[in-house]
Amino acid sequence: RRKWKRVVGVLKELEESCETTVGRLRQVVDAMAVEMHAGLASEGGSKLKMLLTFVDNLPSGSEKGTCYALDLGGTNFRVLRVELGGQRSSILDQDVVRQPIPQQLMTGSSEDLFDFIASSLQQFDENAIDFEKSSIRKELGFTFSFPVKQTSVSSGILIKWTKGFAIKDMVGEEVAGALQHALDRKGLNMRVAVLVNDTVGTLALGHYHDADTVAAVIIGTGTNACYWERTDAIIKCQGLLTTSGGMVVNMEWGNFWSSHLPRTSYDIELDAESPNSNDQGFEKMISGMYLGDIVRRVILKMSQESDIFGPVSPSLSMPFSLRTPLMAVMHEDDSPELTEVARILKNVLEIPDVPLKARKLVVKVCDVVTRRAARLAAAGIVGILKKIGRDGSSGITGGRSRSDIKMRRTVVAIEGSLYTQYTMFREYLHEALHEILGEDIAQHVILKVTEDGSGVGAALLAASHSSKS
Ligand code: ADP
């Protein structure tokens, strides 16, 4: 009996340290906006890198012709061909091939990697030869989802590898140039027209479909966001001029940090044991790579405090043994006996015969962890809106109330499995958005799911930055 109390105590403590009241979320909103300012004011001025992308116009919908994209950001890479009809949302045809990158190429030389990629492009192109004569030079959008210091819209230098890549001779080198050289070696008549990050592709695709789109957010394995900023607000780059007067800024928001973020002992341990401790603090509370492991750590603690989960199982002690999709299945188990929870505890975490009341606790743990993640993501989004004056708070003076202010329709493009596949996550995010903004303002803020923005968006950007137009 005393042991059961201990377990309930663990849950209670978790709930308290994960608390995200609206007041707390508003502090996170303000901190996000402040950090955005700081990151724009000077290089290294904030944990938010606020990287320039040199993307100074977004697809308008009038793009025409055939464009290609190459999407490299994980263990697979994809080649896409997109045919555009010249009218908003008229993507006529789309072709994709996905290929895994052989392990040895992820840690070999840059020439080997890019030759391999260029060969795939060549094969893809030969299959598509009927569609366009090969004498016409093709424009290629290159989505490269690693941290890059951009030097123009079509060039940039690799800052560091992540996600298991370790090609030493690439770090500090020009990324688009390396691809272009490989294309030239193969005799492919293609030009790398743009080099972008996946969030920028998502924003481009969102804007192609809906011109009120001002920002893009991805919540998948990791998390990041970008948005449209006025160039005169990008203080660290004095004299930056674009014809549009604006530019997309890649926030790298996964690295956001604020003392207002509700942090638990589990977060601290997860961070300390990670290969990138003190980095990506926001991401570690929000994204798919980590949520399951936070839950695992809480169950481990409960198991150590009592015997209701039996002896501590080896799987439960193993980092990342509980993946986020399975955590979501437990969270969303609506069977009266919580049979899915029982099955996953038994088969994945090797904890058999957990009584129903303990299974209920496990569901509650999933709920607390996901609710915090979704609400913090919502606060991050409102932080962006605040920075660009779209949260309805600017210009409130004297006797005017919030509802008197004319709020412009504001669209945020969103992608990633946490949002698209995890219903509870999505619902908590929406709920928090409404709580923070209030109904009057929130009705003008629309989250729109785009599909394959990282690839299709890059092709669109290649079209709008084509040397022909
Ligand atoms: P990417 O790797 O490009 O970010 P996704 O947006 O599909 O791709 O995100 C994958 C991540 O989302 C994985 O880390 C996984 O943990 C998580 N995930 C996938 N499906 C679900 C699901 N149904 N519920 C919760 N999380 C999921």
UniProtKB/TrEMBL annotation:
Q: Where are the transmembrane segments?
A: none
Q: Where is the Hexokinase C-terminal domain?
A: 215-463
What's the chief localization of this chain?
Answer: mitochondrion
Q: Name one Pfam family in it.
A: Hexokinase_2
Q: What is its EC number?
A: 2.7.1.-
The record's Gene Ontology cellular component field reads:
cytosol; mitochondrial outer membrane
Q: Where in the cell is it found?
A: Mitochondrion outer membrane
| BP terms from Gene Ontology | glycolytic process; hexose metabolic process; intracellular glucose homeostasis
User: Can you give the residue ranges of the Hexokinase N-terminal domain?
Assistant: 11-208
Q: What class of enzyme is it?
A: transferase
The pathway is:
Carbohydrate metabolism; hexose metabolism; Carbohydrate degradation; glycolysis; D-glyceraldehyde 3-phosphate and glycerone phosphate from D-glucose: step 1/4
Q: Name one GO molecular function term.
A: ATP binding
What InterPro entries is this protein classified in?
Answer: ATPase_NBD, Hexokinase, Hexokinase_BS, Hexokinase_C, Hexokinase_N
In what way does this protein cross or attach to the membrane? Single-pass membrane protein
Keywords per UniProt: ATP-binding, Glycolysis, Kinase, Membrane, Mitochondrion, Mitochondrion outer membrane, Nucleotide-binding, Transferase
Family that this chain belongs to: Belongs to the hexokinase family.
What is this protein's name? Phosphotransferase
Q: Could you tell me which species this protein originates from?
A: Herrania umbratica
